[in-house]
Amino acid sequence: MDAQMLIDEGVSILKEKIDDVAIIACSGGIDSTVAAVMANNAVGEMLHCVYVDTGFMRKGETEEVREMLTELGLNLKVVDASDRFFKHLEGVTEPEAKRKVIGEQFIRVFEEEQAACGAKYLVQGTIAPDWIESGGGERDVIKSHHNVGGLPDDVDLTIVEPLRDFYKDEVRNMAELMEIPSSNRQPFPGPGLAVRVLGDLTRERTEACREACAIVEEEFETAAAAGEMEIPWQYFAALLPVSSVGVHGDARVYGETIVVRAVRSIDGMSARYSEIPHSILQKISTRITNTLKGHVNRVVYDITHKPPGTIEWE
Ligand code: XMP
After folding, report:
1. pLDDT higher than threshold 70 for residue 277
2. How far apart are CA 4 and CA 158, in angstroms?
3. Same domain, 114 and 258
């Protein structure tokens, strides 16, 4: 089936399933935006679109997403829930525990928004790898993607997942047809930077990771535009809770580590690490250690394929 037929079929299924007010969490990522536009086509004004700022978004992301979703004609509310997420994640470092907390807090924010608009349905942009990797079949749980495994049992909304059977490349094709500007954007995990800040999720460490991610994105995109490298499928930085000794001028410093990750992939199910010219990695390393002086004094590059690694570090 071509992408237009998949969209039309999705819209008609949504029309049948949703007969009352619905709410969708839209992160501006490709999956939730495609799901939101589909649902908006199906039920129009009955759909309330909520963007939750968890505090783990990329640099400038909230403003960019606000603009894009508004232009797509969605009925949007931006909720700043960062205090709540940081509070509940205090002291939580185990990756699965983090995902559970994030999934649960998302739902709690939603319940408040649901109460405000009286929604009976929750539309989600879950795609096939999300539930396959969350143990939807007979395989082991690899990661509980926050929009699946993290759901508590007491959810008081009927969940509708129009993209459940699709893979990333199919969803990208749909997004292109829908003229969604994010269709060329790289994927970003639902829990956001929370799974890229290993160890304690403090505001300061999250800010360091956010800055490093922005540097990686900017340098790769500039180099790719200049024809110096191919743009990877996904590229980012993660902050590791590994401190090492370094030197700044004459002074000994003790700081944390940033790992740069870049992969080639089709659908995220498997991936090869990208071979990046050393000159570009060098530039990134210098920028990160200068910008995050005092916090980060070492930058490493991850040369692990998936499998055996996963793309994200948590
Ligand atoms: P991994 O790290 O499992 O990731 O190799 C595969 C792809 O999925 C993204 N990812 C997520 N997406 N919710 C999402 O919507 C999540 O909880 C989540 N965890 C990972 C990841 O960025 C990669 O593109």
Report:
1. yes
2. 26
3. no
Cβ(211) – ligand 1 distance below 6 Å: no
Q: For 91-115, write each residue's pLDDT tens digit.
A: 999 999 999 999 899 888 988 998 9
Q: Give residue-wise pLDDT tens across range 279-293.
A: 999 999 999 999 999
**Residue 225 and residue 243 in one domain:** yes
CB 125 near ligand 1, within 6 Å: no
Ligand 1 atom closest to 191 (CA): 17
| Cis amide bond preceding 308, omega within 30 | yes
The whole domain housing 241 covers: 196-301
Report the distance separating Cα 129 and Cα 136, nearest Å: 9
Q: State how far the alpha carbon of 167 is from the alpha carbons of 31, 59, 131, 246, 298, in Å.
A: 10, 27, 11, 43, 36
- Residue ending a domain, among 187, 213, 242, is 187
pLDDT in tens, 221-232: 999 999 999 999
154 pLDDT above the threshold of 70: no
Domain end position, chosen among 144, 163, 187? 187
Q: Is residue 312 part of a domain?
A: no
Q: How many CB atoms lie within 10 A of CB 82?
A: 17
Ligand 1, from 145, 148, 166: best to mutate by most atoms within 8 Å of Cβ?
145
Centre of ligand 1 from the C-alpha of residue 313, in Å: 10
Token pair, residue 246, equals: 């370094």
Q: Are residues 8 and 86 in the same domain?
A: yes
Q: What is the CATH number of the domain that holds 252?
A: 3.30.300.10
